[in-house]
């Protein structure tokens, strides 16, 4: 059979979610609602952090970055998934697929780095409360955020450029609802071992590397909390990082399981991918709102300021 090159393949087929056609409209409404809640919750969090001077601290600066990342990550995958739920063709241009894979990788990698930064921030706040403002100054916070974005985007760009050089000449069907690097490799008839090696190194750096940093920070946090004599002091110290810890469990739990499972389009793999890409970005604002007294107080102040005069 004659070899086809990259330019000969113009589209891939995203099989999407393994659900019956007669109930696809129901899932469309469900995921559209989740997406709208994600947009509303994260936009509200960004607005609140910007408008309320009580939240102008390093912790909420990082939280604002997390909300922006959740907006980006969800907007990369969900609109195309919603389109395919109502479409029969379910196709995506190769260039669009590579672009989607790039932004999925970049935003996911940035979020992993940012969660590690937030864990370090909580460690400094609990271990050195008197020096917290001096140690976590604006320059350091901005540098940590820019470093997270830059590292993830450069890494994603290298991976995507290598993937774009592959010859796609076999089955054009992707058993997933979005384009990810690992799902593109089986479609190629080129040697993908360099791509797998690079992706493995990137995964170790961004996910396992940052996970180790988070575990290390929390080990020191636990050690510091246990050294506090009063029960109320220990409870207050732990409450400052409970929201972040919940977010870490959701992100790494679903992310690890999603990437460890083979790219086969199995229902279990889809569940973890949906949790990682669709549900978690919606839950993060709720987690920080429900578990954080300062966020709840800021919500009340914003409600009184903007809505109370209308009542």
Structural description of this entry:
There is one protein chain. The chain is an all-alpha fold. Helices cover 73% and strands 3% of the residues. The protein has eleven helices and three strands; from the N terminus they run βααβαααβαααααα. Strands 2-1-3 form a three-stranded mixed β-sheet. α1 packs antiparallel against α2 and α10 packs across α11. The longest helix has 34 residues. The radius of gyration is 21 Å and the shape is globular. It starts with 10 loop residues before the first strand and ends in a 5-residue tail after the last helix. The N terminus is likely disordered.
Provide a compact summary of the structure:
With 311 residues, the protein is an all-alpha fold. The protein has helices spanning 24-51, 58-85, 94-127, 132-135, 138-164, 181-184, 193-226, 231-239, 242-260, 267-291, 293-306, and strands at residues 11-14, 91-93, 173-174.
